[in-house]
């Protein structure tokens, strides 16, 4: 090729390269373009190798043209590279934009279990009357669960409570009374004793709508000088009014427990019919809520209180039963299934 032909070829390469460059829209294509038009195997490199064919006087001029074209293409490549980098950066920034006006995702709040709610409500009532609150082990000794409560080993009343035994001496507590006994032992001969003990207890019962082999008992005990059955009734009336309304009354019926004498069942005015008589109260207008009595003198003496000087009353109730009546829950097993459709109804927020 002669000088004019080489120059024409060079100019054609430049035009083609510049045209192609305009259409390039990403870094990958730009790199390919650079290899194609400015790389070691490019047409331009091929042209520079043909310089030898030219006259000596033509060589510097063609060399200069080659350099000019190369520099022009490199300058355009560089502009394109910068433009692409800026476009890619702004696309990335757009994609990463956070819309601060979007509402937040609501957190899931838990709700207090109805049994926990009832326990706290009852604790509040008795704290207000000056009781202290105690808790203790669910695995108990025969001594504290039975012996100290006037239930010696051969006592027929032990059959009243079928017990989960661990060994001959260790068992799952059947009531929270053991902690009341310990509280008396700790405080004796100091009076008054006023203690409330909530906690899980265990009985070998068949589970059904109203019975569970594991439930939550709340027991209360008062010991002092001149404590009478009227104190028991007044205390429980306070409790009934705080939980079930100011209109509440309580009614005592004779009963039997080995650890109290006399003993009494305590009834509330029916929460369903307000005393009119309905299916819930079997037309009596009253429903049983707890068991109670005057502490048996033998229980007082064993725990360190001289029964010729001190008297006391005690009561026990199932927190599940209180919650069933208060919230109209028909089956005790619902408390242990942890179905959110039940539990979420007790959410306060
Ligand atoms: C019920 C009845 C009751 C007691 C618990 C008690 C405790 C001591 C002394 C005397 Cl240390 N008595 N507790 C008394 C009467 C009834 O519970 O039906 N509970 C679910």
UniProtKB/TrEMBL annotation:
Lineage: superkingdom: Bacteria
A Pfam family the protein falls into: tRNA-synt_2d
Enzyme class label: ligase
Positions with a binding annotation for Mg(2+): 261
Compartments it resides in: Cytoplasm
GO molecular function terms attached to this record: phenylalanine-tRNA ligase activity
EC number(s) per entry: 6.1.1.20
UniProt keyword Ribonucleoprotein, yes or no: no
Catalysed conversion reaction: tRNA(Phe) + L-phenylalanine + ATP = L-phenylalanyl-tRNA(Phe) + AMP + diphosphate + H(+)
Cofactor descriptive note: Binds 2 magnesium ions per tetramer.
Every Aminoacyl-transfer RNA synthetases class-II family profile domain range: 116-345
This protein's UniProt keywords: Aminoacyl-tRNA synthetase, ATP-binding, Cytoplasm, Ligase, Magnesium, Metal-binding, Nucleotide-binding, Protein biosynthesis
PROSITE patterns from the UniProt entry: AA_TRNA_LIGASE_II
Cofactor(s) needed for function: Mg(2+)
Family matches, as PANTHER family: PHENYLALANINE--TRNA LIGASE, MITOCHONDRIAL, PHENYLALANYL-TRNA SYNTHETASE
Subunit structure: Tetramer of two alpha and two beta subunits.
Family the UniProt entry places it in: Belongs to the class-II aminoacyl-tRNA synthetase family. Phe-tRNA synthetase alpha subunit type 1 subfamily.
NCBIfam families recorded: pheS
Protein name: Phenylalanine--tRNA ligase alpha subunit
Source organism per UniProt: Alicyclobacillus fodiniaquatilis
Classification of source organism: Bacteria, Bacillati, Bacillota, Bacilli, Bacillales
